[in-house]
Design brief:
Number of strands of chain E: 0
Low-confidence stretches of chain E: none
Helix content of chain E: over 70%
CATH class of one domain in chain D: Alpha Beta
Number of strands of chain D: 17
Chains: A alpha+beta (193), B alpha+beta (314), C mainly alpha (347), D alpha/beta (446), E mainly alpha (192), F mainly alpha (203)
Strand order of the largest sheet of chain D: 1-14-13-17-15-16
Radius of gyration of chain D: 21 Å
Mean pLDDT of chain E: 84
Largest interface: C-D, 52 and 78 residues
Mean pLDDT of chain D: 92
Distance between the termini of chain E: 14 Å
Number of helices of chain D: 14
CATH topology of one domain in chain D: Rossmann fold
Bound molecules: flavin mononucleotide, riboflavin, iron/sulfur cluster, FE2/S2 (inorganic) cluster
Largest sheet of chain D: 6 strands, mixed
Oligomer: heterohexamer
Largest sheet of chain E: none
Strand content of chain D: 15-25%
Helix content of chain D: 25-40%
Structural class of chain E: mainly alpha
Chain lengths: 193, 314, 347, 446, 192, 203
């Protein structure tokens, strides 16, 4: 079988046909997966929110809003959780750049009084086996039910009340710091509705 | 739907753009290179052993394409099969070569050659050879440290621990010439593989006179010329008290083999019966020749006598 | 001839007495003072860890050489003992035996034997083992028993001076404040500080250095260039801001600087050949150590610095060459002119 | 670690300090009794073999010419004894290879008449430079410092080269050897005349005798004798192997460096050994060809370490017997010094013009010890007097990478053996360097 | 401002070294590192291509994909552009500067299939860098690659002279070397 | 070219004799990058199999219509299309895995195996044998990745496919970059040894 020659028309036509067919089929796949992807993303966010504030009946994701932090450098996403139209809590998405490696993203759930309900680690690149232990209940439990306004949430080494993860003070410190930031930002605005 | 449209338009556009540019650029900046070089390179064994005399397989490919002839160039590793393919690619006549194999031209094993000193330098024949003529009496023999084995790329050699001499593994040897070049004592030699892999050669290089040679090594060739006399085809020559067989002339009649009193004419792939047969044949021939001579002598004598008688009579 | 067969070999026919096993024995002797000080400080734990590490290293090297590589066992040259000892010197005295075993296996198995044994390894085996352990068991590797003649195996843990410094600075304290929490310089010098087994006493290590210099086992180039670099660099930072940076003396006497400079950076196999190269190497280690100590997240950087510079050794070797005899005539115009003059003046 | 206040000069790059073991330093030179048979190879020098001019059965006198030089870089060979020429055959000489040699059965001691055999010192130099060179050439004088390079060639300085210094090599840096030392002690005046002859031949104004400071007595004698000489100096040198290498000696004495691939003449210097200088004296003033030389016989187990005056061609065994026999524990016999000498495989090897000593090494020191991998200690680099990187040359040569080896200046190596000596891993460094050099030279000649 | 660039550079070269920490471009890293001169050639080629490719893909991203909402086409458009670019450069270089082609060109086809190039182009987008920062990031990463491959090749050259265990020869020994190198580079953690 | 060897052999060779990772040393980036656990290795492997098989199929179908000059761009577009499809499908249906594998999914495009096989095999062989080849190579790749992932997971966190086998911490290094290099290095050495042993070669 003879190979097609590298003439001008041949080049253009082949590549055009291939890109055309490729893009067409891709376009269809994209169309087809558009919804599942969106759903999956939504499900992920909701799952995280559900893990930190329970019992809402609204869709906090569609109602989310942004609040600028106290130092004005950044803004955090707030996900209001309401039941029967009444605010039962807020999930705050916060991050810290002070981790051992990369940013740590947390979802912190506050009740109306500013007590921590639950915390979910959304994303981190800490060392598996060390910093990654911050996803374990034994570490997270220390925070639950506490009000950062009343309890010093720093690690013990820095004079606070939190037991750092052994060998991962840096991660623990970053974790506490971002919870603190979420709390302070949360307190800086009124959430009456 | 706009997304689909955008997708198709942009990607196809990019594709057409790319194809057009590639075409234009390649038109403008074309470089021609002989494609046959690559083709030849593909069929070569690509071991880069250098046995062909070129620095590597690629160089060989280039050389054949440039030369357009296979008279001078031959890949010993690929052999005739590969060279035929090469010839096909180039569209020229193939040139067949007899296959060769490396042979070890020393039979001075430990028991035959007594040590006269203990060599204690670096383990290398080449180094020993720059230091002195060897740790045995024989200045021509194998030094036994296996430089040749080390250079063989085809695992076709090993050192025999009992004899201290290298052994060539017939099936692996590609006649690449590496060991021949490596050996500082020129013990190895490329030899025609022979019909049905049969071949004979003298496994000694000692050029000393007979008595000295035998003192140095119990199986040295003494240049006694018995084999020389036995050969009916002029294939054996004696130079500097050393017999050598010319493989071109040798017909593998095997008649010389048993004449050597130290059996230093080595045969490969020849069954013992054949040698015995050949020897018997030689003896018969010799016998016949002797008889013939005797008869002739007798005849001559008789003739003389007759003559004498005749003259007497006359 | 009464003498039997004569031996024949190329010249030279005589050889120095300082052979590899001899050298290795010398290094081991030089390390003994440091070990003694450590026993004084940490008690039997030091002996236990050291013996265990040596045992593991030797046994592992023997097994790998004999059973995996099928080569003659190479342990008699003594280098495995040094590796074991130095590995032990680089870990806390309360390390569990299984971690010591892993460390030895990595040092010898990965760091040394997988490259073919003595002389072939590009990286310092003991440090490969040490860094592997540090990365694998950060908790165990960074809790040191308290110094000061505690003779039981499970003493309370304490941080090293460098650890205190790093943590304190992170928490916002200043250097002078932190210095008050630390032992005196004399204690540093004689080894009363928290830390790994063999790095305690600068004094003991210097004894070893002097011995090795005297025996001509090592030359001064690596240790001196490395120590001077560290002193200079930390000195500059200290002068710029004494509240954020500790003084050079502190940096020289704490952590593994002395141990590294004297015993680990000088390892023949993994350091450059020429004196010039050694100086480049020493300076490189010094710079990297200071950078990691002052700006990285590890309080101590000597091990990493040495390993990184190990990687540069082949490059250093191909550039830092010894001046060649005869190259002077090509290099120096002045020399050529002088010679010219000498030659013509006598004409 | 010894601190010396008045440090003597030495060369700058590399070098080592082996034990010097000069066992025979205080033993006066004694003439060895005439052998029964001599074997005189017709090549004992660098260059072309000489051409034999005698035949089997001829009767020759001591000092009679046996073979004449072939071409300029070659040397005459004289009979060292009187007697009848035996077979002319290939024999194993001290190089380890077979070369053509003339056997002579000794009968009486009948010298050529022209040779002045008296001991009187002849100081006056009657010959012109040309005549000096031709007398040296006729007498078959070759360098006795090791390389056995024909001396007349060195004295014929090529056009365009200007020589301003003659260096006399009295260093004898090889351990054990004392032949030069004894010659300096016993024939200093003759050597000084020899120096003047060489200076005249070369037309130089300045000569320096370099002697290592472990030969204080020799230094003193020359200082005494040369007190009033403006043009000839004596310089004490720190003991440092291989100070005797001419390149090192030039660096030590004059702080000049012979360029890579160059000759001493390129930096205005000619170097001659003291033994050679004495031979020059005898050749020019006494008309005596080079037929005998001083040979040190030594070794830790040798009964009487000695310095013998030996006729060229005498078999080694004769010397050994005269020195008290071959000790039981002999494992290796070296012709020359322990650093650069050649091990010989049997005892019938003849003494040649270049043989400065016979060293017997006991069995337990005869073989090399276990070889380890290179531990990168850099000691070989530190030791190399040429500033090379011996470990690298070994690797390249082993891999057959001669081109790279050449770029790394393998051809500059003077084969002093310092690198192999110091290597703690006992690596056969010089073995491989020598191989690399040989192969490069072979490549060049092809 | 300058601090930002310093952070990008130090991080890309030492801390998050593209080969030793991010595992990109491993195939050429192992394949073309047998001796230092080819490693240098490869390094230079990577620097060249990575810089240009990053610029072009940046433009594609911001002027085609984003405005037309077809971000999901990133992979395919990028790789098409890169493959096209490399091929054009190769053809031109072969003709215009055969010397340069000898030095760099032979590595160019290898680069098309080098994850490092595409990887960096995608990372640039993920990290939302501006054009200048993207270029700095690309060059720094390429330098990181070059540093790693040069160090590595010199180490491998040295290993050539060593007698490695039979089964460790070649790639296994190279990988062990890479592992120790990457452990050593972990010492830089937290530098920025 | 390959038509005379059976498809079975053709398939098997990708598993062992020409294993893309251990023998051909291709596709090492994902091999090292995603194998911090067995599951990730498996996931990456499966994604690659899909792309490999599909692109081999298409390339062998249209090989004769593609002029040399645009061979590489054409192949790459084909491969990239399949990769993007995988990417989209994974994002939709296995979002967690998609996140774990991250950057390495788009990088399947430049995975040397895929283009390598398209170039070296599919562009010269029949459709069926290309399919088999792609499947063999892909499965070989998957096996290698899973094995490597399992080893690293086992040593690094004392578990396999997420099941904890033992209490305590493993050797962290094995989850980090150096552990990937070490494990692969020794695995390849082991493979070399096995290969020689099965061939009866003793060294
Ligand atoms: C490989 C490795 C990974 C590490 N990962 C983390 C981490 O993810 N988080 C952390 O806080 N510390 C981590 N560290 C430890 C820090 O470097 C530092 O030693 C530790 O935070 C000191 O704090 P400690 O007081 O808790 O021991 C890691 C150390 C190593 C060797
Ligand atoms: C091949 C060769 C050529 C030489 N040519 C000259 C020469 O032309 N002029 C000269 O003065 N010396 C010449 N020499 C002598 C050397 O300079 C040197 O003196 C001699 O080799 C002995 O030196 P050594 O014992 O230090 O090795 C030559 C030597 C050799 C080996
Ligand atoms: C390493 C080495 C060491 C040498 N040692 C001496 C020595 O100790 N004494 C000496 O006279 N020549 C020694 N030589 C030879 C000299 O280099 C040089 O050839 C000689 O002095 C020239 O004089 P000649 O031609 O008269 O022999 C040595 C050569 C080398 C290469
Ligand atoms: C001066 C000197 C220092 C050494 N330092 C070390 C060391 O730091 N770590 C180590 O494993 N071996 C060391 N050794 C032993 C040996 O050289 C080392 O194990 C080699 O790297 C093994 O090939 C040292 C040896 C000497 C002579
Ligand atoms: S035995 Fe010699 S000729 Fe034969 S393959 Fe080996 S090296 Fe080549
Ligand atoms: S044949 Fe030659 S190379 Fe081989 S062992 Fe004998 S001497 Fe050495
Ligand atoms: S033998 Fe050669 S390489 Fe070795 S030290 Fe002497 S000059 Fe240097
Ligand atoms: S002296 Fe020996 S061990 Fe030291 S660097 Fe030289 S060759 Fe290597
Ligand atoms: S998979 Fe080959 S370069 Fe990344």
């Amino acid at each position: 079988m003879a190979k097609t020659k590298s003439s001008f028309v041949n080049l253009i036509v082949t590549l055009a046909v291939i890109t055309f067919v490729g893009s067409l089929s891709l376009g269809f796949v994209f169309d087809w997966t558009k919804e599942p992807i969106a759903k999956a993303q939504m499900a992920r966010q909701l799952k995280a929110i559900e893990a930190v504030v329970e019992g809402y009946d609204n869709n906090p994701v569609t109602e989310k809003y942004k609040v600028v932090t106290l130092d004005g450098k950044d803004s955090l996403e707030f996900f209001p959780a309401t039941r029967n139209g009444k605010r039962i809590g807020t999930a705050v998405k916060t991050k810290s750049g002070l981790g051992y490696s990369g940013d740590i993203w947390l979802m912190v759930g506050f009740d109306k009084a500013g007590n921590i309900i639950r915390i979910q680690v959304l994303e981190h690149k800490e060392t598996p086996g060390l910093g990654s232990k911050m996803t374990l209940p034994s570490f997270l439990n220390q925070y639950y039910g506490k009000n950062p306004g009343k309890v010093n949430l720093k690690v013990k080494k820095d004079g606070g009340a939190v037991d750092a993860i052994t060998g991962a003070t840096i991660s623990s410190r970053a974790f506490s710091e971002s919870v603190q930031m979420a709390y302070e930002t949360f307190q800086s605005v009124k959430h009456d509705e | 739907m706009t997304v689909l449209l955008n997708t198709v338009l942009i990607l196809t556009g990019l594709g057409i753009f790319a194809a057009a540019i590639i075409y234009l650029v390649s038109q403008k900046f074309q470089v021609v290179e002989d494609e046959r070089i690559g083709a030849v390179e593909n069929v070569l064994p690509n071991t880069n052993c250098g046995g062909c005399g070129q620095p590597g397989c690629k160089a060989f490919a280039k050389a054949v394409v440039d030369a357009e002839s296979l008279k001078e160039l031959h890949c010993p590793v690929g052999g005739n099969a590969v060279m035929k393919q090469v010839a096909e690619i180039l569209g020229i006549a193939a040139v067949e070569r007899d296959p060769y194999i490396a042979v070890v031209r020393c039979s001075g094993s430990f028991e035959h050659r007594k040590k006269t000193s203990i060599y204690d330098g670096a383990e290398s024949c080449k180094i020993a050879a720059t230091l002195y003529s060897g740790d045995t009496g024989c200045a021509y023999g194998c030094l036994g440290m296996g430089d040749c084995v080390d250079v063989c790329d085809f695992e076709a050699m090993y050192m025999d621990e009992k004899t201290g001499l290298p052994v060539v593994i017939e099936d692996n040897c590609t006649a690449c010439n590496a060991c021949v070049k490596e050996c500082p004592k020129n013990i190895l030699e490329l030899w025609p593989k022979g019909k049905k892999n049969k071949r004979i050669f003298v496994a000694c290089l000692n050029e000393e006179k007979g008595s000295t040679a035998r003192k140095e090594c119990a199986v040295a060739c003494s240049g006694c010329a018995k084999c020389f006399e036995a050969c009916r085809y002029d294939a054996i020559t004696i130079n500097n008290s050393l017999a050598a067989i010319d493989p071109e002339k040798c017909t593998l009649c095997l008649e010389c083999v048993e004449t050597c009193d130290v059996r230093n004419i080595i045969t490969a792939n020849v069954p013992d019966e054949k040698i015995k047969h050949a020897t018997d044949h030689r003896i018969r021939l010799e016998e016949r020749a002797r008889k013939k001579k005797e008869e002739e002598k007798l005849a001559a004598q008789a003739a003389q006598q007759q003559n004498g008688d005749a003259t007497k009579q006359a | 001839m009464s003498a039997g067969l004569l031996t024949v070999s190329p010249s030279p026919h005589i050889h120095t007495d300082l052979t590899v096993p001899q050298i290795m024995r010398g290094v081991i002797i030089a390390m003994i003072p440091a070990l003694v000080f450590s026993v004084y400080n940490f008690g039997l734990g030091a002996v236990y860890v050291t013996l265990l590490a040596i045992l593991f290293c030797v046994v592992i090297e023997y097994s790998i050489a004999r059973y995996l590589l099928k080569r003659p066992a190479s342990i008699y040259d003594g280098s495995a003992v040094i590796t074991g000892m130095l590995l032990a010197f680089n870990v806390p005295t309360n390390l569990p035996w299984h971690i010591i075993l892993i460390g030895s296996a990595v040092a010898i198995g990965i760091g040394k034997m997988s490259f073919g044994g003595l002389g072939n390894n590009p990286f310092n085996p003991a440090l490969v083992g040490r860094v592997f352990l540090l990365l694998s068991f950060p908790v165990e590797m960074t809790s040191w028993p308290k110094a000061g003649a505690t003779w039981s195996l499970d003493a309370t843990t304490s941080a090293t001076p460098l650890g205190i410094l790093k943590d304190g600075l992170r928490a916002g304290d200043t250097v002078p404040e932190l210095m008050n929490q630390m032992p005196s310089y004399a204690d540093f010098f004689f080894g009363l500080q928290g830390g790994s087994l063999g790095e305690m006493s600068a004094f003991a290590i210097l004894l070893g250095l002097i011995y090795m210099l005297y025996r001509k086992i090592i030359t001064w180039h690596i240790p001196v260039s490395m120590l001077i670099t560290i002193a200079l660099m930390t000195g500059i930072f200290w002068l710029v801001d004494p509240t954020r940076f500790a003084n050079p003396l502190f940096h020289l006497l704490t952590g593994g600087v002395m141990l590294g400079a004297v015993f680990m950076a000088t390892d023949y196999v993994t350091s450059p050949f020429t004196h010039r190269g050694m100086i480049v190497f020493g300076v490189g280690i010094g710079v990297l150590t200071v950078v990691i100590r002052l700006f990285g997240s590890y309080p101590e950087g000597v091990s990493f610095a040495i390993l990184i510079m190990n990687a540069f050794v082949p490059i250093i070797n191909s550039y830092a060459k010894q001046p060649r005899y005869g190259s002077k005539s090509q290099r120096h115009k002045a020399y050529q002119e002088k010679l010219e003059k000498e030659l013509t003046s006598t004409k | 670690m010894a601190m010396r206040l008045n440090k003597h000069k030495t060369f700058k790059t590399g070098g080592i300090h082996p034990h010097d073991n000069k066992l025979s330093a205080q033993v006066a030179i004694t003439p060895l009794s005439l052998p029964k048979m001599v074997t005189i190879p017709i090549i004992q020098h660098i260059g072309a073999p000489a051409k034999i001019v005698v035949q089997r059965g001829d009767i020759v006198k001591t000092g009679q010419i046996l073979a004449t030089h072939e071409g300029f870089v070659s040397s005459n060979i004289h009979s060292s004894v009187s007697g009848r020429i035996g077979v002319i055959e290939e024999v194993m000489d001290s190089t380890g290879f077979k070369h053509t040699a003339v056997n002579i059965r000794v009968k009486g001691d009948d010298w050529e008449e022209a040779i002045d055999r008296t001991d009187t010192l002849v100081e006056e130099i009657k010959f012109s430079p040309k005549e000096i060179v031709s007398r040296i050439m006729e007498a078959g004088v070759v360098g006795m410092g090791g390389a056995a390079f024909p001396s007349h060639v060195k004295l014929s300085v090529p056009e365009g080269k200007h020589i301003d210094h003659l260096l006399i090599n009295g260093v004898e840096c090889e351990p054990y050897l004392t032949a030069d030392h004894r010659v300096m002690l016993e024939k200093p005046k003759e050597i000084i005349v020899g120096i003047k002859i060489l200076m005249k031949a070369l037309g130089v104004q300045k000569a320096i005798i370099g002697i290592e400071d472990n030969k204080a007595d020799a230094i003193e004698i020359f200082q005494q004798l040369l007190k009033n000489e403006k043009h000839i100096g004596v310089e004490a040198l720190e003991v440092h192997y291989p100070q005797g290498g001419e390149k090192q000696l030039i660096q030590a004495l004059l702080n000049r460096e012979v360029p890579s691939g160059g000759l001493p003449a390129d930096v205005g210097v000619i170097v001659h050994n003291v033994g050679t200088t004495y031979a020059v004296y005898e050749a020019v003033q006494k008309n005596k060809p080079l037929i005998e030389r001083v040979v040190t016989v030594t070794g830790k187990s040798v009964k009487q370490p000695s310095n013998f005056l030996v006729r060229i061609g005498t078999p080694v065994i004769d010397l050994l017997i005269a020195a008290g026999g071959v000790p039981e524990d002999t494992g290796k016999i070296v012709s020359g010094g322990p650093m650069m000498g050649k091990a010989i495989a049997d005892l019938d090897v003849p003494i040649a013009k270049g043989t400065s000593g016979i060293l017997l090494i006991p069995k337990d020191e005869a073989s090399r010890s276990e070889v380890y991998n290179c531990v990168h200690c850099g000691k070989c680099i530190e030791a190399c007097p040429m500033g090379l990187e011996p470990y690298r040359l070994l690797i390249m040569s082993k891999k057959g990478n001669n081109k790279r080896a050449k770029e790394e200046h393998i051809l500059d190596c003077i084969e002093c053996g310092s690198c192999s000596f110091v290597c703690p891993s006992n690596r056969p460094i010089l073995d491989y360097i020598r191989l690399g050099k040989t192969q490069l030279k072979k490549q060049k000649s092809v | 401002m300058t601090m930002d660039y310093l952070v990008i550079i130090v991080s890309a070269i030492f801390i998050n070294n593209i080969v030793l920490a991010k595992f990109l471009g491993i195939c050429p890293f192992l394949g073309v590192s047998k001796n230092t001169s080819t490693a240098l050639g490869m390094g230079a080629a990577v620097i060249f291509v990575m810089t240009i490719a990053t610029i072009i893909t940046y433009l594609v991203q911001h002027y085609l994909l984003v405005p037309f909402h077809i971000g999901y086409m990133q992979t395919i458009t990028y790789i098409l552009v890169i493959a096209f670019l490399v091929q054009v450069v190769e053809i031109i270089m072969k003709k215009v500067s055969p010397d340069l082609y000898q030095a760099l060109g032979v590595y160019l086809p290898l680069i098309t299939t080098n994850c490092a190039i595409l990887g960096v182009a995608i990372l640039v987008v993920q990290q939302d860098l501006n054009l200048i920062k993207s270029v700095v990031f690309a060059i720094a990463n390429a330098l990181g690659f070059t540093l790693a491959i040069i160090l590595f090749s010199s180490l491998r050259e040295q290993l050539d002279g060593a007698d490695l265990p039979e089964y460790m020869k070649g790639v296994p020994a190279a990988l062990i070397t890479a592992s120790i190198l990457s452990m050593a580079f972990m010492g830089f953690a937290g530098l920025v | 070219m390959m038509s005379n060897t059976s498809h079975k052999e053709n398939f098997i060779k990708g598993l062992v004799k020409e294993n893309p990772v251990f023998v051909l040393l291709l596709g090492l980036c994902p091999t090292l990058g995603v194998t911090s656990s067995a599951f990730n290795g498996l996931g990456m492997g499966v994604a690659t199999v899909f792309v490999l098989v599909m692109s081999n199929l298409v390339v062998s179908l249209i090989k004769n219509f593609i002029p040399d000059k645009v061979r590489i761009p054409a192949f790459i577009v084909i491969i990239a299309s399949f990769v993007t499809m995988v990417q989209l499908l994974m994002e939709a249906y296995t979002p967690a895995l998609h996140e774990q594998l991250g950057l390495f999914i788009p990088l399947i495009v430049v995975n040397c195996i895929v283009l390598g096989r398209a170039e070296a095999f599919a562009s010269r062989n029949t459709v069926v044998s290309s399919l088999v080849d792609g499947l063999g190579m892909g499965v070989g790749f998957t096996l290698a990745l899973t094995l490597l992932g399992a080893i690293r997971e086992l040593l690094g966190s004392l578990s396999i496919f997420g099941f904890r086998l033992m209490e305590g911490d493993g050797m962290l290094v094995f989850i980090l970059a150096p552990g990937a290099f070490i494990s692969l290095g020794f695995l390849i050495a082991l493979m070399n040894w096995l290969k020689d042993r099965s061939a009866g070669i003793k060294r």
